[in-house]
Amino acid sequence: MADEAFQQDGEVAQRIAAVIPFYQYKGIPRFYDITGFLQRPDVFQQVIDVFAARYRGKIDSIGGFDARGFVLGPPIALALKVPFFMLRKPGKMPNSISSAAYQVEYGKRGGMCIPRGHPLDASDPLNKSTVVKANDRVLLVDDLVATGGTLSSGIELVRNLGATVVECACVVELKMFVDPPAESGLPSRKKTWEEKGIADVPVWGLVSEDILTMAGEVPEGYVDDGEEH
Fold first, then answer.
1. Which part of the chain is the Phosphoribosyltransferase domain (predicted)?
2. What is the spatial distance between Cα 106 and Cα 48, in angstroms, rounded to a whole number?
3. Which of 17, 81, 147, 205 is 20 to 30 A removed from 49 (C-alpha atoms)?
């Protein structure tokens, strides 16, 4: 696949953006809804094809974040014939390893966890193996990155297991949070990641907010309750 396919806001990205609406949700003026392209098999397939082409031969496993990373990660992993693992909120998986709490654009979360995996053989009777192995090259996948709080939690967890995060990939990257001016009052992903010592991990997003212009229609009487669901 040509390099143009990987260009943010390029021709492929514009086809994807055309079917991603936004809504007001949880007090956020623009909540981008990837279920728009999930309803279009041709566009969904194109998303998977682009991701698979970008990472073919470069990774050993893929981690997807709860919940939309579970939608994107498995088909990419199948296309690349590599294992997939889930990153979930603590308390959602038995026999898991947890990270520290992290901050997102609409509140604080209690960290992430990944499964330890299953015993590989009789030499591992206590099930000490993890789905992420030391020296693995790992791709972390989510639908959207804003402040990068969720991603940072996953990066730290994977690194603590001795693996390397090759890149964090998402369909939508909100550039307004990358390195905003101080007077904006917005959190800076660049500054936060520098403080955490993970600024060397690249983030790749196919679509930015610059081309996401489709306001979704909501039913009459719809109320954004501002609650976390």
1. 45-173
2. 28
3. 147
Phi/psi for 119 (5° steps) reads: -55, 130
pTM of this prediction exceeds 0.85 = yes
In terms of average pLDDT, the best of 26-35, 53-62, 113-122 is 53-62
Tokens 């990837």 belong to residue: 34
**In contact, 47 and 16? CB cutoff 8 Å:** yes
Element (H, E) at 72: helix 69-80
Question: What are the backbone dihedrals phi and psi of residue 213, each rounded to the nearest 5 degrees, phi first?
Answer: -120, 5
The topology (CATH level 3) of 55-206 is Rossmann fold (3.40.50)
Spatial distance between the Cα atoms of 188 and 106, rounded to a whole number of angstroms = 14
Q: Which residues pair with 167 in a beta bridge?
A: 139
What value does the mean pLDDT of the chain take?
Answer: 88
| Every domain of the chain and the residues it spans | 55-206
- Helix, strand or coil, per DSSP, at residue 130: coil
Q: What is the DSSP letter of 9?
A: T
Could you tell me the two tokens for 171? 């369909």
